[in-house]
Amino acid sequence: MSQRGLTLVELILTISLATILAIPTALLLGAHLQEAMSSHDSTMALQLGRFELERLDSLNNFFASPDLTIGSTVLTNFQGYPYDVTRAVTCQVGDCTSTASSSQGVKRITITVTPTGSAVPLAKLITYRTKCVCFGSNPPLSQINCSNVCS
Amino acid sequence: MQRTRETGWLLVGLIVILSAVFLAMAGVALALAQSRQLLSVRENDTEAVYLAQAGVMQALFDFRDPGNGGNGFALGQYIVDDGPGTQDDIFILGGKAADFLLANMISSVVDQGNLAGQPRDRLRDWRMRNVLITAAPVVRITHMSVAWENPTVPFGVGVIRIELNNTKVWPVVGQISTPQPSGTLLNIIDHTIPANTVRVRNTIWFSTTNIMSAKAFIDVTFRMSDHVASGNPLDASIRTAHYTQQTSTRSADFTIKSVGQVQKGAFPFVTWRRIQAEYRICGSATVPTNCDTSPEELTNTGKLLTYRELTQKSP
């Protein structure tokens, strides 16, 4: 009897200790999972934001491109991923609508990435584009056609 | 006694196992926290480079647009996105004197003119512009050197006189010098180009006749006065302008240095990214020969030739 009573006390103590340890462990585990998901979301959002900005850079006539029309465009499920990319283009300074090369302007591009269906921003990238300037190499100039960057 | 030791293993074993699990979870938690901080740094890092790019675009706009009293950009800090307190997204424009010297060789000509009673070869009518709108830093040329293809053919060929803004700046004494060989550093009378100002009547005279027009290239290097304040000759910034027989390969560029700065996120310190852009005026293939007036320099389509990241701390 004495031996069985000791086992019961031990079992109760063990369960109590296990419970005491399990509660913070479970909380920690939950936090781990949440953090892991958050890190994944942030990484994906950052990469998708960069993807969109690099794509805009690759448009040689980027200022006059339809993709940089003043306004806001939401690209849902961007590139097939469960994230929405919002491309907001505003006129930072000057004249951003005229096609005359003598009229200058700067567009402000804000790329915001959110999970699809959510308004919580995961990544936000801001840059500017000015008019009549293209990316290219030199020499020779003829390899890059910059003739349509203004209009 | 034997039975008491055996029954104790259940308790001891579970305590040991749970402690090990707890320690392992704590380790993972620490690793995840560090991962989150690194991710935050990477986010700021990415954001900063696009802010730096925004700075280049702002500088080009200010150069092309006659606002703020003229054409040209100002150095300093620009706020892009206000944050709480000091947590702002900004870019900073900076650079050294030679960065802001635009030497437009597109409209230059190699021909002959009369100097000291003799016909001489000359490189003339390249344009120089200070692309800043502010007085500082001063764009002041203290030395020049000229180099050309086949530098010793014919024997004795050399530079004998330099005029900037239709004024002789070298030799300091006399009308002409003895011919100075290709690459010789010439100490000229200091020549300052004020902000938002163009110098159009510039000429380099050579000792030869009907020789230099056949050279494939002539390089003109300008050494600026940055070193005067520090007293260290190595601090002098330089710019080399490139003349070629083909108009499309002549240089006509200046440099923009921009720093993107971000301060926010999990890490309480500032992230910087620094880029340097080389901008060529009149960069379109359709108008490379027509760039000899200010409106053409300023408003013709331009081209960003290169972007590269800098490692030094200040722009």
Please tell me the total number of domains of chain A. Answer: 1
Please state the structural category of chain B. alpha+beta
- Overall mean pLDDT of chain A: 82
Please identify the structural class of chain A as seen in this structure: alpha+beta
Number of domains of chain B: 1
Main interface: chain pair and counts:
A-B, 61 and 58 residues
Give a written overview of the molecule:
The complex is a heterodimer of chains A (151) and B (315). The radius of gyration of chain A is 28 Å and the shape is rod-shaped. Chain A has one domain. About 5% of the residues of chain A have low confidence. By secondary structure, chain A is α+β, with helices and mostly antiparallel strands. Helices cover 38% and strands 26% of the residues of chain A. Chain B is α+β, with helices and mostly antiparallel strands. Chain B has one domain. In chain B, the strands form four sheets. Chain B has a five-stranded antiparallel β-sheet with strand order 1-2-15-16-17. In chain B, strands 4-5-12-8-9 form a five-stranded antiparallel β-sheet, with no helix packed on it. A four-stranded antiparallel β-sheet of chain B has the order 10-7-13-14, with no helix packed on it. In chain B, a hairpin with a 2-residue loop joins strand 8 and strand 9. The longest helix of chain B is centred in the N-terminal third of the chain and has 56 residues. At the A-B interface, helix 1, strand 3, strand 4 and strand 5 of A face helix 1, helix 2 and strand 17 of B. Strand 5 of chain A pairs parallel with strand 17 of chain B.
